[in-house]
Amino acid sequence: MATTYWDYLRLDRLLDLQGGIEGDESALMSDELHFIIVHQAYELWFKLCLRELRLARDHLAEPKVPEEQIPYVVHHLRRVTSILELCVSQFKVMETLTPQDFLAFRDKLMPASGFQSFQMRELEIVLGLEDDVRLRYGGTDPLEHVRTLAQSSPGGQHAWGRIEAARGEATLKSALDEWLYRTPVQGSGPDDPGDEEVVLGFLTEYYEKLVGMNAQKKADMLEALGKITSSIEQRFADAEAYAHRFLFAEDVEPERRARARRIRAGVLFVEAYRELPLLAWPRLLLDTVVATEEEFVIWRSRHARMVERVIGRRIGTGGSAGVEYLDSTVHYRVFKDLWAVRAILLPKAELPQLRRQEAYGFAR
Ligand code: HEM
After folding, report:
1. What are phi and psi of 283, to 5 degrees?
2. From residue 185, how far is each of 114, 196, 221, 310 by CA, in Å?
3. Is the per-residue pLDDT at 168 higher than 80?
4. Is it the case that residue 364 has pLDDT exceeding 50?
5. 149 Cβ closer than 6 Å to some ligand 1 atom
6. CB atoms within 10 A of CB 43
7. What is the pLDDT of residues 79-106, one digit of tens each?
8. Burial class of residue 316 (count of CB atoms within 10 Å of its CB; 0-12, 13-18, 19+)
9. For residue 113, how far is its CA from the centre of ligand 1 (angstroms)?
10. Does domain 28-360 have CATH number 1.10.510.10?
């Protein structure tokens, strides 16, 4: 029998899933059908994002990642980024639901909410969002919320099972950290003798260059703005303290500090000397990870604006403060080092002198 379009896509099943809680599509108002289809479309895209993120993570998690494998990681992450861009623009479609029309069926959703989107939680978990970053509201952890409701809802076991399984997996963040940890810094790898001194030497030299450059900048700014604002000296002092804390991982507990420092040195090295042939793909990978996380942040922010437009500052059906809660989640960051390093990059001419340049060329 010839394959048909409708069988291949299981359209009979797919198009029979929009009946809402009553399971009767013909009884739904068109606004509610719209609401259901928009959400289902998002969940389908989330499904694909999860698959792509896991592939990116698996490529990167290998004990040794050959240079030619990095484009695959970039490829999967770019797909995720494109999907999220589309998801962001899709909120326009959601916004065609007017505030009053939504009220006609909103109450029957209670206490269901996107808060229970277990695929969104899986995405956060697979990326590597730390539990202590995730906000709690009303004393409830968002994951705990799903676990509690899972006990009384038919689909709940599945939702909670998915979250639990994701929590047992490696994350993209841990795979990336492991890979960054192995980055040669000034030609030295973590297994090379004297590596810790090389890394510390590089970081110290870098910090001194940064302070030297800031001294000139501070003098220029004081001259230009000193009469208008009094906080310039303090701002520079804060920025230097921040750079020191970041570079030497003073914000990390002592047992994990050397490792965190090496990872950060790796990020800095790739960003700073990105024109070296062997760092071209790693640098593109870091940029792609930032682009992917940026799109998640934009998604959160755009969702909050759409919510503000449709329900204003009402409390959510899931019981949160609504827009206020959603806006706070815009501060979530998974790949904090990649964001942090941007504040301390130096222009090329100010960089510490590169050592063992031959280690970063292509083999001939
Ligand atoms: C009229 C449309 C929508 C409104 C009024 C709305 C409102 C809200 C509110 C108030 C919350 C906070 C939790 C709560 O108390 O309920 C929330 C969370 C959430 N919503 Fe929506 N939403 C809408 C559409 C969507 C769509 C189309 C998606 C796509 C999947 C979505 C996904 C989510 C997710 C994933 C969360 C959890 C965010 C987090 O905890 O980080 N929402 N929504």
Report:
1. -65, -40
2. 44, 10, 33, 51
3. yes
4. no
5. no
6. 13
7. 999 999 999 999 999 999 999 999 999 9
8. buried
9. 6
10. no
Residue 139's pLDDT is what?
A: 64
Strand partners, 140: 137
Q: What is the pLDDT of residue 274?
A: 93
Tokens coding 57: 């993570």
Q: Is 24 left (phi over 0), alpha (psi -120 to 50) or beta?
A: beta
Q: Hey, CA dihedral for 300, 306, 310, 312, is it positive or negative?
A: positive
pLDDT > 70: percent of the chain: 98
In the chain, where the domains are located: 28-360
140 lines ligand 1 (CB under 6 A): no
Atom number of ligand 1 nearest to Cα 325: 12
Ligand 1 centroid – CA 341 distance (Å): 32
Tokens of 228: 């208008």
Residues 6+ apart with CB under 8 A from 118: 146, 159, 160, 162, 163
Percent helix / strand / coil, the chain, rounded to 5 = 70, 0, 30
Q: Could you tell me the distance, in angstroms and rounded to a whole number, from the CA of residue 15 to the centre of ligand 1?
A: 23
pLDDT value of residue 143: 87
137, β-bridge pairs: 140
Mapped onto helix, strand or coil, the DSSP state of residue 185 is strand
Q: For residue 137, name the pLDDT band (cuts at 50, 70, 90).
A: low
pLDDT of residue 363: 54
Half-sphere exposure of 274 (CA within 13 A, CB side): 15
Nearest-CA residue for atom 41 of ligand 1: 329
DSSP state of 362: P
Residue 53 tokens read as 């993120």
184 and 359 Cβ atoms separated by less than 8 Å: yes
